[in-house]
Protein backbone atom coordinates (compact mmCIF):
# COMPACT_ATOMS: atom_id res chain seq x y z
CA UNK A 1 0.00 0.00 0.00
CA UNK A 2 1.34 3.43 -0.89
CA UNK A 3 2.04 5.89 1.88
CA UNK A 4 -0.39 8.84 1.90
CA UNK A 5 1.55 12.05 2.51
CA UNK A 6 -1.65 14.12 2.62
CA UNK A 7 -2.76 12.32 5.79
CA UNK A 8 0.60 12.71 7.52
CA UNK A 9 1.75 15.45 9.87
CA UNK A 10 5.28 15.06 8.47
CA UNK A 11 5.20 18.28 6.45
CA UNK A 12 4.17 20.25 9.54
CA UNK A 13 7.04 18.68 11.47
CA UNK A 14 9.49 19.57 8.69
CA UNK A 15 8.23 23.17 8.61
CA UNK A 16 8.65 23.49 12.37
CA UNK A 17 12.25 22.30 12.13
CA UNK A 18 12.99 24.89 9.43
CA UNK A 19 11.35 27.58 11.56
CA UNK A 20 13.53 26.63 14.53
CA UNK A 21 16.66 26.75 12.37
CA UNK A 22 15.98 29.73 10.09
CA UNK A 23 13.28 31.69 11.89
CA UNK A 24 10.84 31.16 9.01
CA UNK A 25 9.21 28.12 7.42
CA UNK A 26 8.25 27.48 3.79
CA UNK A 27 4.86 26.67 2.39
CA UNK A 28 4.94 23.32 0.60
CA UNK A 29 3.14 22.28 -2.54
CA UNK A 30 3.33 18.48 -2.91
CA UNK A 31 3.27 17.00 -6.41
CA UNK A 32 2.41 13.45 -7.49
CA UNK A 33 4.70 10.93 -5.82
CA UNK A 34 6.12 7.66 -7.06
CA UNK A 35 6.96 4.38 -5.41
CA UNK A 36 10.31 2.58 -5.42
CA UNK A 37 11.32 -0.68 -3.82
CA UNK A 38 12.53 1.01 -0.66
CA UNK A 39 10.64 4.29 -0.49
CA UNK A 40 7.99 6.78 -1.54
CA UNK A 41 9.38 9.81 -3.39
CA UNK A 42 7.49 13.11 -3.52
CA UNK A 43 8.50 16.20 -5.55
CA UNK A 44 7.82 19.32 -3.50
CA UNK A 45 7.79 23.02 -4.37
CA UNK A 46 8.89 25.15 -1.41
CA UNK A 47 7.79 28.78 -1.23
CA UNK A 48 10.37 30.39 1.04
CA UNK A 49 9.49 33.54 2.96
CA UNK A 50 11.78 36.52 3.38
CA UNK A 51 15.44 36.41 2.41
CA UNK A 52 15.97 32.70 2.86
CA UNK A 53 17.97 31.42 -0.10
CA UNK A 54 17.28 27.73 -0.19
CA UNK A 55 16.27 25.64 -3.22
CA UNK A 56 12.61 25.80 -4.21
CA UNK A 57 12.41 22.39 -5.84
CA UNK A 58 12.85 19.56 -3.36
CA UNK A 59 12.44 15.81 -3.10
CA UNK A 60 10.98 14.16 -0.02
CA UNK A 61 12.04 10.52 0.23
CA UNK A 62 10.14 8.51 2.85
CA UNK A 63 11.59 5.06 3.47
CA UNK A 64 9.14 2.18 3.77
CA UNK A 65 8.80 0.17 6.95
CA UNK A 66 11.69 -2.27 7.20
CA UNK A 67 14.12 -0.02 5.33
CA UNK A 68 15.33 2.01 8.29
CA UNK A 69 18.78 0.39 8.20
CA UNK A 70 19.20 1.52 4.58
CA UNK A 71 18.45 5.10 5.56
CA UNK A 72 20.85 4.96 8.49
CA UNK A 73 23.56 3.47 6.27
CA UNK A 74 23.17 6.25 3.69
CA UNK A 75 23.42 8.89 6.42
CA UNK A 76 26.61 7.21 7.64
CA UNK A 77 27.98 7.18 4.07
CA UNK A 78 27.13 10.87 3.67
CA UNK A 79 29.04 11.73 6.82
CA UNK A 80 32.11 9.77 5.68
CA UNK A 81 32.10 11.28 2.19
CA UNK A 82 31.70 14.80 3.60
CA UNK A 83 34.80 14.25 5.71
CA UNK A 84 36.95 12.68 2.99
CA UNK A 85 35.92 14.53 -0.19
CA UNK A 86 35.74 18.23 -1.03
CA UNK A 87 32.62 17.75 -3.16
CA UNK A 88 30.95 14.37 -2.69
CA UNK A 89 28.89 13.34 -5.75
CA UNK A 90 25.65 13.32 -3.76
CA UNK A 91 22.42 15.32 -3.77
CA UNK A 92 22.30 18.06 -1.14
CA UNK A 93 20.49 16.89 1.98
CA UNK A 94 18.51 19.65 3.71
CA UNK A 95 16.90 17.62 6.47
CA UNK A 96 16.51 14.06 7.68
CA UNK A 97 14.58 12.42 10.46
CA UNK A 98 11.71 10.09 11.28
CA UNK A 99 7.99 10.35 10.78
CA UNK A 100 5.75 9.90 13.80
CA UNK A 101 5.07 6.45 12.41
CA UNK A 102 8.78 5.66 12.74
CA UNK A 103 9.71 5.82 9.06
CA UNK A 104 12.98 7.50 8.08
CA UNK A 105 12.87 10.39 5.61
CA UNK A 106 15.27 12.59 3.62
CA UNK A 107 14.47 16.06 2.28
CA UNK A 108 16.85 16.71 -0.60
CA UNK A 109 17.36 19.10 -3.49
CA UNK A 110 15.46 18.01 -6.61
CA UNK A 111 18.20 17.16 -9.14
CA UNK A 112 15.84 17.32 -12.13
CA UNK A 113 16.12 21.11 -12.06
CA UNK A 114 19.87 21.11 -12.66
CA UNK A 115 20.63 17.60 -13.93
CA UNK A 116 19.21 14.97 -16.25
CA UNK A 117 19.13 11.22 -16.58
CA UNK A 118 20.07 9.32 -19.73
CA UNK A 119 18.41 6.49 -21.63
CA UNK A 120 21.34 4.83 -23.36
CA UNK A 121 19.02 2.97 -25.72
CA UNK A 122 17.89 6.19 -27.36
CA UNK A 123 20.97 8.42 -27.57
CA UNK A 124 23.60 8.30 -30.31
CA UNK A 125 26.95 6.58 -29.84
CA UNK A 126 29.01 9.76 -29.46
CA UNK A 127 26.76 11.16 -26.75
CA UNK A 128 26.67 7.77 -25.04
CA UNK A 129 30.45 7.67 -24.98
CA UNK A 130 30.69 11.18 -23.50
CA UNK A 131 28.19 10.37 -20.76
CA UNK A 132 29.97 7.10 -19.91
CA UNK A 133 33.32 8.85 -19.88
CA UNK A 134 32.01 11.38 -17.35
CA UNK A 135 30.77 8.56 -15.10
CA UNK A 136 34.08 6.68 -15.31
CA UNK A 137 35.96 9.79 -14.24
CA UNK A 138 33.51 10.47 -11.44
CA UNK A 139 33.78 6.90 -10.16
CA UNK A 140 37.56 7.23 -10.30
CA UNK A 141 37.27 10.30 -8.08
CA UNK A 142 35.21 8.39 -5.53
CA UNK A 143 37.43 5.31 -5.66
CA UNK A 144 40.70 7.26 -5.46
CA UNK A 145 39.49 9.12 -2.36
CA UNK A 146 39.13 5.83 -0.47
CA UNK A 147 41.82 3.67 -2.09
CA UNK A 148 43.25 1.36 0.59
CA UNK A 149 41.75 3.72 3.18
CA UNK A 150 41.44 2.79 6.82
CA UNK A 151 37.83 3.91 6.63
CA UNK A 152 37.10 0.70 4.71
CA UNK A 153 37.64 -1.34 7.88
CA UNK A 154 34.43 -0.01 9.41
CA UNK A 155 31.91 -2.79 9.82
CA UNK A 156 29.28 -0.84 7.87
CA UNK A 157 31.42 -1.10 4.74
CA UNK A 158 32.01 -4.84 4.96
CA UNK A 159 29.28 -6.71 3.10
CA UNK A 160 27.99 -9.90 4.58
CA UNK A 161 26.28 -12.38 2.28
CA UNK A 162 25.76 -10.14 -0.72
CA UNK A 163 23.53 -12.35 -2.89
CA UNK A 164 23.64 -12.79 -6.67
CA UNK A 165 22.92 -9.11 -7.37
CA UNK A 166 25.93 -7.93 -5.33
CA UNK A 167 28.35 -10.74 -6.10
CA UNK A 168 31.44 -8.53 -6.09
CA UNK A 169 30.76 -7.15 -2.59
CA UNK A 170 31.08 -10.29 -0.46
CA UNK A 171 34.55 -10.43 1.09
CA UNK A 172 34.57 -13.29 3.61
CA UNK A 173 35.09 -16.82 2.32
CA UNK A 174 31.94 -18.13 4.01
CA UNK A 175 29.85 -15.34 2.43
CA UNK A 176 31.35 -15.92 -1.02
CA UNK A 177 30.52 -19.62 -0.78
CA UNK A 178 26.98 -18.85 0.41
CA UNK A 179 26.47 -16.57 -2.59
CA UNK A 180 27.69 -19.27 -4.94
CA UNK A 181 25.40 -21.85 -3.38
CA UNK A 182 22.46 -19.50 -3.84
CA UNK A 183 23.34 -19.06 -7.50
CA UNK A 184 23.69 -22.82 -7.97
CA UNK A 185 20.16 -23.26 -6.64
CA UNK A 186 18.85 -20.53 -8.92
CA UNK A 187 20.56 -22.03 -11.95
CA UNK A 188 18.92 -25.41 -11.51
CA UNK A 189 15.79 -23.86 -12.97
CA UNK A 190 17.05 -20.77 -14.80
CA UNK A 191 19.67 -22.41 -17.01
CA UNK A 192 17.13 -24.98 -18.15
CA UNK A 193 14.71 -22.18 -19.01
CA UNK A 194 17.50 -20.27 -20.77
CA UNK A 195 18.07 -23.09 -23.24
CA UNK A 196 16.52 -21.16 -26.11
CA UNK A 197 18.53 -18.01 -25.32
CA UNK A 198 21.96 -19.43 -24.49
CA UNK A 199 24.10 -21.62 -26.70
CA UNK A 200 25.28 -24.95 -25.22
CA UNK A 201 28.85 -23.70 -24.90
CA UNK A 202 27.58 -20.62 -23.04
CA UNK A 203 25.72 -22.79 -20.55
CA UNK A 204 28.91 -24.82 -20.04
CA UNK A 205 30.85 -21.58 -19.43
CA UNK A 206 28.38 -20.46 -16.76
CA UNK A 207 28.48 -23.82 -14.98
CA UNK A 208 32.27 -23.75 -14.91
CA UNK A 209 32.26 -20.12 -13.80
CA UNK A 210 30.08 -21.04 -10.83
CA UNK A 211 32.75 -23.53 -9.73
CA UNK A 212 35.70 -21.23 -10.42
CA UNK A 213 34.28 -17.98 -8.98
CA UNK A 214 35.12 -18.54 -5.27
CA UNK A 215 38.84 -19.01 -5.95
CA UNK A 216 38.96 -16.23 -8.54
CA UNK A 217 37.34 -13.73 -6.20
CA UNK A 218 38.99 -14.79 -2.94
CA UNK A 219 42.45 -14.75 -4.56
CA UNK A 220 41.77 -11.22 -5.81
CA UNK A 221 40.70 -9.79 -2.48
CA UNK A 222 43.29 -11.65 -0.39
CA UNK A 223 45.07 -9.30 2.02
CA UNK A 224 42.70 -6.48 0.96
CA UNK A 225 45.08 -5.03 -1.60
CA UNK A 226 43.73 -2.24 -3.85
CA UNK A 227 40.22 -2.16 -2.46
CA UNK A 228 38.11 0.98 -2.21
CA UNK A 229 34.67 2.32 -1.43
CA UNK A 230 32.11 1.71 -4.17
CA UNK A 231 28.66 3.20 -4.61
CA UNK A 232 27.26 -0.32 -4.84
CA UNK A 233 24.45 0.25 -7.34
CA UNK A 234 25.89 2.55 -9.98
CA UNK A 235 23.50 1.80 -12.82
CA UNK A 236 22.33 4.60 -15.20
CA UNK A 237 19.07 5.08 -13.30
CA UNK A 238 21.05 6.18 -10.23
CA UNK A 239 23.16 8.74 -12.10
CA UNK A 240 22.30 12.37 -12.83
CA UNK A 241 24.38 14.30 -15.35
CA UNK A 242 24.64 18.13 -15.12
CA UNK A 243 22.40 19.89 -17.64
CA UNK A 244 24.69 22.91 -17.99
CA UNK A 245 28.34 23.26 -18.89
CA UNK A 246 29.48 25.27 -15.89
CA UNK A 247 32.99 24.43 -14.78
CA UNK A 248 31.92 23.31 -11.30
CA UNK A 249 28.99 21.16 -12.46
CA UNK A 250 29.42 17.51 -11.53
CA UNK A 251 27.73 14.15 -11.85
CA UNK A 252 25.58 13.13 -8.90
CA UNK A 253 24.80 9.58 -7.79
CA UNK A 254 21.67 8.77 -5.78
CA UNK A 255 20.66 5.82 -3.58
CA UNK A 256 23.75 5.11 -1.49
CA UNK A 257 22.14 2.38 0.60
CA UNK A 258 24.48 -0.36 -0.70
CA UNK A 259 27.82 1.47 -0.50
CA UNK A 260 30.50 -1.04 0.53
CA UNK A 261 34.19 -1.91 0.30
CA UNK A 262 35.07 -3.73 -2.90
CA UNK A 263 37.02 -3.59 -6.18
CA UNK A 264 36.63 -0.31 -8.05
CA UNK A 265 36.92 -1.55 -11.63
CA UNK A 266 34.15 -4.09 -10.94
CA UNK A 267 31.84 -1.13 -10.41
CA UNK A 268 32.96 0.36 -13.72
CA UNK A 269 32.00 -2.94 -15.39
CA UNK A 270 28.64 -2.88 -13.61
CA UNK A 271 27.86 0.57 -15.00
CA UNK A 272 29.18 0.11 -18.55
CA UNK A 273 27.44 -3.22 -19.05
CA UNK A 274 24.16 -1.88 -17.65
CA UNK A 275 24.48 1.16 -19.93
CA UNK A 276 25.16 -1.14 -22.90
CA UNK A 277 28.51 0.56 -23.43
CA UNK A 278 30.78 -2.42 -22.79
CA UNK A 279 32.02 -2.42 -26.40
CA UNK A 280 33.66 0.94 -25.60
CA UNK A 281 35.41 -0.62 -22.64
CA UNK A 282 38.99 -0.19 -23.87
CA UNK A 283 38.88 3.62 -24.11
CA UNK A 284 36.65 4.14 -21.09
CA UNK A 285 38.58 1.85 -18.78
CA UNK A 286 41.82 3.53 -19.81
CA UNK A 287 40.29 6.90 -18.89
CA UNK A 288 39.23 5.49 -15.53
CA UNK A 289 42.73 4.13 -14.90
CA UNK A 290 44.43 7.38 -15.95
CA UNK A 291 42.15 9.34 -13.63
CA UNK A 292 43.05 7.07 -10.71
CA UNK A 293 46.73 7.62 -11.46
CA UNK A 294 46.27 11.39 -11.72
CA UNK A 295 44.52 11.41 -8.34
CA UNK A 296 47.43 9.69 -6.62
CA UNK A 297 46.67 5.95 -6.75
CA UNK A 298 49.96 4.06 -6.92
CA UNK A 299 51.05 0.42 -7.24
CA UNK A 300 47.99 -0.43 -9.33
CA UNK A 301 48.84 -1.30 -12.92
CA UNK A 302 46.72 -1.08 -16.03
CA UNK A 303 46.85 -4.89 -16.30
CA UNK A 304 45.44 -5.18 -12.78
CA UNK A 305 42.68 -2.74 -13.72
CA UNK A 306 41.81 -4.80 -16.81
CA UNK A 307 41.67 -7.98 -14.75
CA UNK A 308 39.41 -6.34 -12.14
CA UNK A 309 37.07 -5.13 -14.86
CA UNK A 310 36.82 -8.67 -16.24
CA UNK A 311 35.99 -9.97 -12.77
CA UNK A 312 33.17 -7.44 -12.69
CA UNK A 313 32.01 -8.66 -16.07
CA UNK A 314 31.87 -12.23 -14.75
CA UNK A 315 29.86 -11.04 -11.75
CA UNK A 316 27.35 -9.41 -14.12
CA UNK A 317 26.69 -12.83 -15.66
CA UNK A 318 25.32 -13.95 -12.30
CA UNK A 319 23.27 -10.77 -12.00
CA UNK A 320 21.57 -11.13 -15.38
CA UNK A 321 20.90 -14.85 -15.05
CA UNK A 322 19.44 -14.35 -11.58
CA UNK A 323 17.11 -11.75 -13.11
CA UNK A 324 16.26 -14.19 -15.94
CA UNK A 325 17.61 -11.71 -18.49
CA UNK A 326 18.99 -14.51 -20.65
CA UNK A 327 19.53 -12.59 -23.87
CA UNK A 328 21.51 -9.95 -22.03
CA UNK A 329 23.39 -12.64 -20.12
CA UNK A 330 24.33 -14.28 -23.43
CA UNK A 331 25.87 -11.04 -24.69
CA UNK A 332 27.99 -10.72 -21.54
CA UNK A 333 28.99 -14.39 -21.65
CA UNK A 334 30.21 -14.03 -25.24
CA UNK A 335 32.28 -10.99 -24.27
CA UNK A 336 33.68 -12.88 -21.28
CA UNK A 337 34.58 -15.90 -23.41
CA UNK A 338 36.69 -13.62 -25.61
CA UNK A 339 38.47 -11.98 -22.67
CA UNK A 340 41.80 -12.85 -21.10
CA UNK A 341 40.13 -14.14 -17.94
CA UNK A 342 38.22 -16.82 -19.88
CA UNK A 343 41.11 -19.25 -19.70
CA UNK A 344 40.91 -19.14 -15.91
CA UNK A 345 37.25 -20.17 -16.13
CA UNK A 346 37.57 -22.89 -18.76
Entry summary:
By secondary structure, the chain is of the alpha+beta class. It has helices spanning 10-22, 68-84, 125-145, 173-193, 200-221, 264-274, 281-294, 302-322, 326-337, 342-345, and strands at 27-30, 34-35, 39-47, 57-63, 93-98, 104-109, 115-116, 228-230, 239-242, 252-253, 260-262.
CATH class of the largest domain: Alpha Beta
Low-confidence sequence ranges: none
- What structural class results from the helix and strand content? alpha+beta
The description of the largest β-sheet is: 6 strands, antiparallel
Strand elements, count:
11
Number of helices: 10
Q: Rough shape?
A: globular
Q: Measured on Cα atoms, how large is the radius of gyration?
A: 21 Å
Query: CATH homologous superfamily of the largest domain - what is it?
Result: Aminoglycoside phosphotransferase (APH), C-terminal lobe
**What is the terminal separation in angstroms?**
48 Å
* Share in helix: 40-55%
The count of domains is 2
CATH-defined architecture of the largest domain: Alpha-Beta Complex
Mean pLDDT value? 88
Fraction of residues in β-strands? 5-15%
CATH topology of the largest domain: Aminoglycoside 3'-phosphotransferase, Chain: A, domain 2
Topology pattern, helix = H, strand = E: HEEEEHEEEHHHEEEEHHHHH
